[in-house]
Amino acid sequence: xxxxxxxxxxxxxxxxxxxIREESLDYSxxxxxxxxxxxxxxxxxxxxxxxxxxxxxxxxxxxxxxxxSEILTGQIAMLADPFMLSQMQESIDNGSCAEAAVDAICTMxxxxxxxxxxxxxxxxxxxxxxxxxxxxxxxLGTAGVDLSDLPAGSVLVAQDLTPxxxxxxxKENVAAILTATGGKTSHSAIxxxxxxxxxxxxxxxxxxxxxDGDGLIVDGGEGIAILNPDERTRNEYLxxxxxxxxxxxxxxxxxxxxxxxxxxxxxxxxANIGSVKDAEAAAKSGAEGxxxxxxxxxxxxxxSLPDExxxxxxxxAVSQIMEGxxxxxxxxxxxxxxxxxxLGMEKEENPFLGYRAVRYCLDRPELYKVQLRALLRAxxxxxxxxxxxxxxTCVDEVRAARELLEQxxxxxxxxxxxxxxxxxxxxxxxTPSAALIADLLAKECDFFSIGTNDLTxxxxxxxxxxxxxxxxxxxxxxAVLRSIKNVIAAARDAGIPVGMxxxxxxxxxxxxxxxxxxxxxxxxxxxxxLATRANIRRWLSADAARVTDEAMSLSTATGVEGYLAAxxxx
Length: 570
Ligand code: PEP
Ligand code: MG
Prior knowledge:
Layout: E1 2-4, E2 6-9, E3 12-20, H1 35-63, H2 66-79, H3 82-93, H4 98-114, H5 119-139, E4 154-158, E5 174-179, H6 187-194, E6 199-201, H7 206-209, E7 215-219, E8 224-227, H8 231-250, E9 268-273, H9 276-285, E10 290-294, H10 296-299, H11 308-321, E11 327-330, H12 357-363, H13 365-378, E12 385-389, H14 395-414, E13 424-429, H15 432-436, H16 438-442, E14 448-450, H17 452-460, H18 478-494, E15 498-500, H19 511-517, E16 521-525, H20 529-538, H21 541-552, H22 557-569
Parallel strand pairs: 3-4, 4-5, 5-6, 9-10, 9-16, 10-11, 11-12, 12-13, 13-14, 14-15, 15-16
Antiparallel strand pairs: 1-8, 2-6, 3-7, 7-8
Helix pairs in contact: 1-2, 1-5, 3-4, 4-5, 9-11, 11-13, 13-14, 19-21, 21-22
The protein binds phosphoenolpyruvate and magnesium ion (MG).
The site of magnesium ion (MG) has 5 residues, from helix 17.
């Protein structure tokens, strides 16, 4: 059986399905089995919780840091509180099953913490809620798959792949990824590419069609998966996998070559990252800098806000890994498709048009300033850090962010803490409004970076993760191309550098246009660095200009796509 979806990350993977199903914490069917049995069930669940949490904490300590792991060890300490345990036991004495006792007592504590003024205390409410759900899932036997302990050759099958699921993921054990939702630029796709794992997304009914242990072939380039393939098909795809890996290996010759076009014009080729760990992969990939550090990942996978020190250490670490090369760090881009549970943001009718990114941060200056201070501090000591604001729509937002930045500088100065006085502040151009007023924004910004993932979504009014409208979602739509051209021209007129960190920066079809218009910097996923360099090196300026003229004379996306695909293939 062939399953079709969106080709999100290239490569061929063969293996066995591991399905990650949403767990239900409904315990209404559980019957009370007497005081002693329920208390024993509770104790055994707590023991299992402690063992698993200690294991996770150790993993996070090694991968992320001591401070982050303390959030988990803190949860163990919370459950060790004899008062909390005795309240749960009392609830059992009064006739509740272990699940109901855990639910009632944890909810009581969570509500109590949530009502307190102090931000730190309020964050403990999130911790208690987390303890509640994990204890319930142990009691109900629905505890999810442990992604840090997958058998080799696992094909992950999930509704969606969230960053928190991938915390402990061992890449070498995963053959491929299949999900029921998501598009080419959704975060699961970006994660898959960062991990260099083949992925097909938005496969309809995948959760119903696939069972644990089913054989699967995933062709991330074609956007198909084959369920329980026969021997002949398996062999055919093993050959394709080998060919793909050979092709990738052939790009190695470009690792130490400069990023210049065929007549020697130089471009910057950077990588996009989401963590300190990704920076290591970026450094190895041959990237000449970081064009986008998505800092929201630093805020996810935890139960409270990372403080200034945690953030400062992370930004400094990335800069050190990149050995002082330019590192563009985007401030928190929360909301839309990037949920951070402990911030307790309300559900919205239109999250992509709602309270998110810079809008949220400017509304919470106490939170935003922590990040700005950490960035300013990390920019000291020769670290080449630039700050980038996401989802800018008007000049006031840039001015307000700059104003906060100036306040932070003053505070640091007074406290005699070293920081980068001249740190650059730039804007992501990823909304139609920003693209239309690029000339005005250019006067307020030190640089631009074009975010085509959102620019395409907002220009075309298509949800970037909705497979049903995927046909319209293309950066090669004439409307999006005109917008990109306008932004680059505005930056050039104002004399500020302009890059692109949306996924389109790695699209070989778009390269001649971007080169002709004068884009300075291409920022792509680590896995696309060498291919992009190879593609840039192929183009003569005159050929790229001719192709650009022809492409811009066409009036449909299919026309542009067909023409550019043929030009690139020549
Ligand atoms: C973009 O919108 O193009 C972008 C790079 O940001 P993100 O994908 O994180 O929204
Ligand atoms: Mg964006």
